[in-house]
Amino acid sequence: MVDLKGQYDKIKDEVDKSIFEVLNSTSYINGPAVRQFQENLEKYMGVKHVIPCANGTDALQIAMMGLGLKPGDEVITVDFTFAATVEVIALLNLTPVLIDVDKDTFNIDLKKLEEAITPKTKAIVPVHLFGHVAQMEDIMALAKKHDLYVIEDNAQAIGANYTFKDGSQQKAGTIGNVGATSFFPSKNLGAYGDGGSIFTNDDELAHSIRGIVNHGMYERYHHDVVGVNSRLDSVQAAVLDIKLKHLDDYSSRRQNAARHYTEALSKSEHIQTPQTETYKPCDNSNGICDTCDCHVFHQYTIKIKNGKRNALAEHFKKNDIPHGIYYPIPLHSQKAYKDERYDEKEFKVTNQLVDEVISLPMHTELDKEQIDYITSEIIKVVG
Ligand SMILES: *Cc1c(COP(=O)(O)O)cnc(C)c1O
């Protein structure tokens, strides 16, 4: 699915040198490498505060702790995402409210979102699934109207740009009150181990979060709040700082690969290719995608409309073509998150997506020849 070795080989000299610099510095935790990466990421994202932490799941949890959400508060998020999103809501004894997604973008359904808001709702967690930014302008307007926090799960969309109706742009993850991302190796900005980060433009929230990641300490050995231990280590920061310089190039490589896939797969009436305006002139009026750079293709995920998804997966397996089914089970049907509040009728889209979606190899080293081979195999099976 990914070619991390091919990517590493191209930056090996730079990366190895900076790793050895950290080893020689012996400043393995919170050293200058972390500080430097933090500052460079702040510049890149156009955000006031980047707070590095140990992984993307922690980033989401700490963001929610920083906002002071309390047990019983309802937090609305999507039924179709990686479990980490709902896991941290449940861990903090907040009440997860899972809702259906849009059938074309796989992102939060705005109508369902508005319907799900109750007097107990305190926050919304949009997930920029597969690298495609959710409709943030509308989400922010709704949040303002109902006085809710917005926590962006940006684990899959780092580097994506969101364009507002007035033409201004902001990076995904910096639009809500707070954003969280993951540097898991296969993510678009991947470390060589675990890592994560929190984004905010809110000075007070940033201060609060900086204490929470460090055992609730704002002054050494004074523990003002219950915190956690969540750090990005210096070796990972050094690797990430190098890869950050390549992130825009990595995104455009992914977008190019997506363009080749879409060109080849559009020939089949049984395949729905990802909904995006990334490589077409922007059309804000369609209400689906607001910008030309709003999809960074963490995954290239198609829908197989004629019931042949499993046959295709079998064919891939037999021919050693990597693929993934993200996600095979909707969260509301997972043992850990089942709840009598949920009504199957409310999850029409996710219940169908789990039978139709399949993700194709997607990474920065993919070439046209590989894509031609993969797409011709798909058409063979699906028609
Ligand atoms: C990867 C991911 C996370 C969690 O990130 P980790 O660094 O693995 O903890 C959270 N949300 C989404 C949508 C993800 O894809």
UniProtKB/TrEMBL annotation:
Keyword set includes Nucleus: no
Record has tRNA processing as a keyword: no
Active site feature: K187
Signal peptide: none
InterPro entries found in the cross-reference section: DegT/StrS_aminotransferase (IPR000653), PyrdxlP-dep_Trfase (IPR015424), PyrdxlP-dep_Trfase_major (IPR015421), PyrdxlP-dep_Trfase_small (IPR015422)
Keywords, alphabetical: Pyridoxal phosphate
GO molecular function terms attached to this record: pyridoxal phosphate binding; transaminase activity
GO biological process: polysaccharide biosynthetic process
Pfam families for the chain: DegT_DnrJ_EryC1
N6-(pyridoxal phosphate)lysine PTM positions: K187
Family (UniProt): Belongs to the DegT/DnrJ/EryC1 family.
Protein name from the UniProt record: dTDP-4-amino-4,6-dideoxygalactose transaminase
